Amino acid sequence: MKAAYLKERPSIGELGNRLFIDSTLPAPNLDEIKPTEIIVQVKASSINVDDIHIPEGSFLGGLPFLQSKVPSNDSPIVIGSDFAGIVTGIGSKVDQDKYKVGQRVCGMNHLQSVYSEMGTWAEFVVTEEKRIVSIPDDLSFTDAAAVVLPLFVIHGLLEVFEAKMTGKEKIVVIGASGGIGSLLIKMLHKSFNDYNLHITGVCSGRNEKFVLGMGADRVVDYTKGPIEIDLKGDGMEPTMYDVVFDVVGGKASYESAKAVLRKGGKFITCVGPLEWIGDDMLSTCAKFSWVGKVMWYSSLLNLIPGSHPTYYMVAPSELGKTTFDLAFKNKVIPHVDRVVPFDDITRVREAIELVRSHRVKGKVVLEIEKTG
């Protein structure tokens, strides 16, 4: 089968240069899979920043046991984590009332580092029932692949947000133009419109129209200075917010959130105390420091009385099928920045570097098989 794979661990920044795309790897065989497994013919898969960090060994700064295994000539690894396609084979213990050959599905193999799940930048992938969801007939494979990782993360964010939700919340999304942030805004706008939410997106000014189009009520341009200045407004009574969602990370995001959140407000992050963690390898001391900060903010600080916001560090562990159902019901479709043909390795390498730059508006999707 055609697949994108590695035969050695690339250095940071070298994934594209070490990548092979050809048809030398064998396709999965129904007779060889476990009874609980499913074979999917992949039509599309996204390029996510974690798909770059995990094989380069720098995911979460290089924390042990969270990276891919080291590939070799004798044991290459296929990379990629999400997918959309058609079921072509099912194990004997799969619920055949829910999943059948020919069914359109999307899903995620997000435990490649721990359980060596098969990568998804390939014509076929082996996965499990709990890692897939059915997709509507009117949803393209491109959009289905693009929605997987954002909804995987958004499920965790919304679990915290919906707890004790009262309606009319004032919300800030830091990182509003990226794949997760933009879809989060659209999800809040379309799926929670009965709550009369007010959503402010934080992004660069060049993406203002895009973020407003996703459903934000206003946009704050982070390139013009500390975002809390614009967030508070110019009135005598400064605007205070109920929730800040952070999909960028770092000290600046949290300090800005503290300045604008009301007493008892929620700071919900899927990244943590370092901005764009994974772009570099952390030293041993820095790794301990990062883990310590996560424990301090998300556990110990929340126990101390005071006016600080409640800090939530979200680390999703399941696909969150109820969130997918809600998104599909309300036609929450991601913005796809570009679709890259799988058989053009030059364009695949360029797309990897675009994703690495954190300058993507929405998602970048690999077209594994052209579908029209």
Give descriptors for this structure:
372 residues; alpha/beta; Rossmann fold; six-stranded parallel beta sheet; seven-stranded mixed beta sheet; 11 helices
Our measurement of the CA-to-CA distance between the termini, rounded to an integer number of angstroms, reads: 21 Å
* CATH A-level architecture of the largest domain: Alpha-Beta Complex
Average pLDDT rating: 92
Named CATH topology of the largest domain: Quinone Oxidoreductase, Chain A, domain 1
Structural class of the helix and strand makeup? alpha/beta
| Percent strand | 15-25%
Characterize the main sheet. Answer: 7 strands, mixed
Shape: globular
Indicate how many domains the architecture comprises.
2
Q: What's the helical proportion of residues? A: 25-40%
Helix tally equals 11
Q: How many extended strands?
A: 16
Secondary-structure element pattern, one letter each: EHEEHEEEHEEHEHEHEHEHEHEHEHE
Uncertain segments:
none
The CATH H-level superfamily of the largest domain is Medium-chain alcohol dehydrogenases, catalytic domain
How would you explain this protein's 3D organization?
The chain has 372 residues and is of the alpha/beta class. It folds into 2 domains: 3-139 and 334-367, Quinone Oxidoreductase, Chain A, domain 1, CATH 3.90.180; 149-313, 3-Layer(aba) Sandwich (Rossmann fold). The chain has 11 helices and 16 strands. The chain has helices at residues 15-18, 49-56, 112-115, 141-162, 179-191, 208-214, 227-232, 251-260, 284-300, 321-329, 345-356; strands at residues 3-6, 20-22, 37-46, 77-78, 82-90, 104-108, 124-128, 132-134, 170-174, 198-203, 218-221, 241-246, 261-269, 310-313, 336-341, 363-367. Strands 3, 5, 6, 7, 8, 15 and 16 form a 7-stranded mixed beta sheet that branches. Strands 11-10-9-12-13-14 form a 6-stranded parallel beta sheet, sandwiched between helices. It is globular. The mean pLDDT is 92.
